[in-house]
Amino acid sequence: MQDTMTRLSPAQLESLGSELDALRQRVVDDLGDRDVDYIRNVIRVQRALEAGGRGLLFASILPPAWLAGTTALALSKILDNMEIGHNVMHGQYDWTNDPALSSKEFEWDTACPADQWRHSHNYMHHTYTNIVGKDRDIGYGVLRMTEEEPWEPRWLGNPVYALALALFFQYGVAMHDLEVEHIGEGELEWRSRPNLLRGIWRKVRAQTLKDYVLFPLLSGPQAPLVLSANATANLVRNVWAFTIIFCGHFPEGTAEFSQEETANETRGEWYLRQMLGSANLTGGNLFHILSGNLSYQIEHHLYPDIPAHRYAEIAEEVREICERYELPYNTGPLHTQFGSVVGKIFRLALPGRGGQKSAVHEAESNGRALAAGADGRAGTAQGRTAAAR
Amino acid sequence: MPPPRRPRFDPARDRRRLVRRLAGSGLLEALTAPHGVERYLELVLPGFSLHDLRAEIVHVRRPTATSVTLRLRPNELWRGFHAGQFVSMTVEIDGVRRTRCYSPSSSQHAPDGELEFTVRSHPEGLVSRYLCEHAQPGKVVELTQAEGDFVLPTRRSERLLLISGGSGITPVLSMLRTLCDEGHDAPVTFLHYARQERDVPYRAELIELASRHPNVRVAYVYTREPGSRLHGHLERAHLRAVDRCYRQAEVYVCGPPGLIEAARALWVGDGHEERVHSESFLPPRLLMTSGEASGSVSFAASGIQAVASGTTLLEQAEQAGLSPAYGCRMGICHTCTCRKLAGQVRNVNSGELSSCEDEEIQICVSVPAGDVELDL
Known about the structure:
The complex is a heterodimer. By secondary structure, chain A is an all-alpha fold. Chain A has helices at residues 10-30, 33-56, 63-89, 114-127, 158-167, 169-175, 180-184, 194-218, 223-249, 267-276, 285-290, 297-302, 311-324, 334-347, 359-365, and strands spanning 280-282, 331-333. Chain B has four domains: 13-49, no CATH class; 52-149, Beta Barrel (Elongation Factor Tu (Ef-tu), domain 3), CATH 2.40.30.10; 160-165 and 182-280, Rossmann fold (3-Layer(aba) Sandwich), CATH 3.40.50.80; 296-374, Ubiquitin-like (UB roll), CATH 3.10.20.30.
């Protein structure tokens, strides 16, 4: 097996690990008022957008008010779910001891209960990132996002499933921890999941009550307009979150790994897997905030519990480390990265493996050639790429 | 004991009560789910809370170079206190919430439930230093309800002796002020130990109280001013000098452990140990710096004690038969995050020591350094 991960010797891996540890420590030592002020400002803006949007929709009979209210509400939900919810629940602000910023106590405005999210995302996805068979974010159980998944006729529907997942993303995320695909395969039963189902039902009910019953009813004759506005805001958030999240690990060039090769990882190897398995997005400040700084997916996967607004500040350094170790640093604008994801969704709808681009080829064609040659080591952490086959 | 007095008519308070009633309604909770009304209101009304006891600093005075006197107005959730009790105060310092215990020095009958605290800054005391340097009117802090059984008996005693040392003055001053507010007319002797005269807070107030209340006698002992009339540490001669009938008094002592032990020994010698009521102000425990795993681990919620084995607190908890939540076991996912009530831990990834009381830690990457108490 000739691949990406074996290109670093054990000594290199160890120094990579300690360099990244040192960078992390520098940021941790500097945490303080600045970080708390930042997240509280974002929260203030989000709560103002939420209250303002809901308020405007009481005049939704006027088209500009409908449009402005819907936009404000969509932005509020996006901020709530991404820059605030996702990041707070990662424990990025646990060091503040503020219950309003505590990963254990935060609940977000989406169908997925916070505790289930912390399990499926913080633990499963962030610990086993891109390990086929363990990281259930690969395809969310409903898509074929890797060649490792054998083709079956049902995958012809891949693009349709992806579109449906995008439109109803919050429910897709909510079902994540249920492992629905295993229920379908008879490995699990619905009945074995009563607590998870109850939690989801509680969240879905609260959101439905608020967005589709109470606010429309309170607005009297404008009820249909308010209902449509709230549905639109939820839909916009769904599609946006899907787009950003799918750009995190699925653009061409991101690597996948097998369970065997990642069985006994060192810290350096774990870092390496996170870097090789993630991809960034370029864009302006506002874009990064609205993406919850998931546009810095590489930095986020290295340091999932460091306040996300810090990723931009360390990105240059991470990139420099990648260059020094001759590792790819997969980044690009949204349209390129998402185009690449869409291409993969369509390509994997069809059978066959031939002619596919590998991670290594992709990285090389991106002009960040990997060091060839001297494999200092074989074994524990060999990246799985099509080139190996 | 009489309940704390409240003013009869206060439009601002009635308005706040109305807001509270409206905000607490189920409809508003449903409309603001999942965050709840509170998380919206606190952005415009920082002192207001439906659930959290908060207080606004309304007045700040710096009586000596190293101390600060704060007057706090708690929100509607405050249930009052009995003189001598303490509260936990949480302040945010450089983004991190820190909690410390302080005893109010004000009378329990102060108007509008206002509380006064005097905090002396210690070179090592993060919170006391912060309060001395940065406390400002308008700032909001979090409080807990008052706790502690260092209180006057419901039937006020005939003869009282209040002894304090250093910053232990606050709870006994609260007792004295409370007694004066109640028109208590039996003899009360207030005996305070300080290093030197300029270290005594409330000197002017105490002189004023003694002049207005003939039953109150105030005396100071300076441990480091040999020239003064009374000096050195607590001894029988001091007691005789301030109150000839001190043997008949109920005694309330607050201060460093040495002062309390001395008082206890005197009354034990007299065969009246039950008359001594005390509260110790312990200096913060010295921190271990070796980082060696040692000492004991106590899991407070389950009442289990274990000897530190050098492994992570998560493993220790599991060995002790507990099954705390965990995920990655490498410090990534925060599933195992747990409240550390006391003690010091070392992060195995960074080697960093952390000794804050009442902080969230990741037990999968924390090993104890000294005795540790976890909320598990």
